[in-house]
Amino acid sequence: xxxxxxxxxxxxxxxxxxxxxxxxxxxxxxxxxxxxxxxxxxxxxxxxxxxxxxxxxxxxxxxxxxxxxxxxxxxxxxxxxxxxxxxxxxxxxxxxxxxxxxxxxxxxxxxxxxxxxxxxxxxxxxxxxxxxxxxxxxxxxxxxxxxxxxxxxxxxxxxxxxxxxxxxxxxxxxxxxxxxxxxxxxxxxxxxxxxxxxxxxxxxxxxxxxxxxxxxxxxxxxxxxxxxxxxxxxxxxxxxxxxxxxxxxxxxxxxxxxxxxxxxxxxxxxxxxxxxxxxxxxxxxxxxxxxxxxxxxxxxxxxxxxxxxxxxxxxxxxxxxxxxxxxxxxxxxxxxxxxxxxxxxxxxxxxxxxxxxxxxxxxxxxxxxxxxxxxxxxxxx
Length: 381
Ligand SMILES: Cc1cc2nc3c(=O)[nH]c(=O)nc-3n(C[C@H](O)[C@H](O)[C@H](O)COP(=O)(O)OP(=O)(O)OC[C@H]3O[C@@H](n4cnc5c(N)ncnc54)[C@H](O)[C@@H]3O)c2cc1C
Known about the structure:
About 35% of the residues lie in helices and about 25% in strands. It is of the alpha/beta class. Strands 1, 2, 8, 9, 10, 11 and 17 form a seven-stranded mixed sheet that branches. Strand 13 and strand 14 form a beta hairpin. The chain binds flavin-adenine dinucleotide. Flavin-adenine dinucleotide binds near residues 40 and 145.
């Protein structure tokens, strides 16, 4: 009988595993792939995400340091840079492998290449069934990402207005050409994918190129991606990966008596830009904290339901306000993009959010009173 079984070895599962090991919980982490494995992602690893780790990610994993953003909308282009780093760009196979190694070094048991098929929650334990074996644990964290179905035992499947469809590819290029195209910044194309966005992120010897938009609006994702590629001069045949991002905010069930959802499985993603690594790491850690408190009976109600309130206090505010921005973008796209491209300050201030210099809430509080001015005047450009 384990204290804890973690399903999935992405950033959320690894972060949970590392903390569980440090606290001394008998922990088994089960990952269906053999690492390093490919994970479709833009690979933007924010300062916020890094701040949650209890170690420094080595330099070789940071392929590019990002200080700014170039935003395109209907032929307009604004580029804004900060004097401090807002994120780095990483390859997820390398980052995720490193994070899993950091969980392993604490001494937890890790099985890769083994898939969890199902689990059964009992009064005093959970049975976890894989394609190889059956395991028992007092508690389980489901950190299976956005594509798995185990989470649907706890929370309903997202509706089409609650998740985004992304198509992503990697395009090889030499670093000199990449740096000439964009240096120390990321390239965002608003208005692509029916009010979603397209991105071109510079990595080590390749671009990550992708599009993403709400499932209810994005009817032909692959064609949208092909059009985006062509319009940016990428004319070859590329291997395209389709993946989902939950974007529906926070009003969900995320725990039962013995099972907790974390990361994408819980739906913890910034609805506006699709950033999820930070919330995956943090929610994995918080899931372990509540499980450990429950095991040690520090959590007086003895209930994992408190998990939602500790996540709420910790990071829900960002998820809530990113959803507000995302809803504004979908409901009033013309107005929204006009605001975003009418004044450099709107983007400049936004960059402070992933850099941890400003919260989403204070950004929106800053923005709202300025909206009439930005709609009427095109200042500072
Ligand atoms: C195209 C795209 C671009 C993105 N770009 C960014 C970005 O630039 N920056 C950012 O911060 N976020 C980005 N995101 C979001 C980010 O990828 C996720 O939020 C993050 O990976 C969530 O981490 P996780 O650990 O919850 O899930 P995952 O990283 O998906 O990990 C889940 C793990 O569980 C394993 N697993 C699944 N089912 C089972 C099972 N049944 N048994 C055992 N193992 C299982 C999987 O193999 C996987 O390794 C992007 C997402 C997409 C789709």
